[in-house]
Specification:
single chain; alpha+beta; Aminopeptidase; globular; 5 helices; 6 strands; about 170 residues
Length: about 170
């Protein structure tokens, strides 16, 4: 746990944070112009983060009163080239009214610390190409765009059709 300059605490997520985490996920979806895309629930978050075999993890910024002000949700990746794990940052979100408090930097620094402590050579994520404030923020922290790589996704009917080929 880390106490931030305004007294808020950056810490690993724990049981009881699910509703606040879900609120951040929904706020991020709203910001990313996908308000109806969130199917997640507090129960699903609890199972994912705190179940018998967690495969995703989260850091939160807690205002001290139980209010989740910011989140970083992440999971491990694996690079066949380096032969080591890395961290994939799935969601980074800071509620708008708290964006001048350094929470985004603190969360990314915590993830970078996790990488350094565990010998993971990579911390990676995607950002929407129209999200200039985030792109500028990430660039200022030393993040580099992977211009030659593009993300691919298979979902819905295409996923079902592909599975049927097995």
């Amino acid at each position: 746990m880390t106490t931030l300059t305004d007294g808020a605490e950056l810490r690993p997520a724990r049981r009881g944070d699910e509703t606040g985490i879900l609120a951040c996920i929904q706020a991020l979806a709203d910001y990313e112009r996908e308000p109806d895309a969130v199917d997640n629930t507090a129960e699903m978050i609890a199972a994912t983060l705190f179940g018998d075999d967690p495969r995703a993890f989260a850091f939160v910024v807690d205002g001290g009163d139980g209010e989740i002000r910011a989140i970083a949700i992440w999971f491990l990746t694996y690079s066949t080239w380096t032969g080591r794990h890395g961290i994939w940052l799935e969601d980074l979100y800071v509620h708008e009214r708290f964006r001048a408090n350094g929470y985004g930097v603190a969360l990314l620094a915590a993830l970078a610390g996790e990488c350094v402590d565990k010998g993971y050579p990579r911390l990676e994520w995607t950002v929407l190409d129209w999200n200039e404030p985030a792109i500028g923020f990430y660039r200022a922290l030393g993040a580099q765009a992977m211009e030659e790589w593009t993300t691919r996704r298979v979902t819905g009917e295409a996923l079902t059709a592909l599975a049927a080929r097995a």
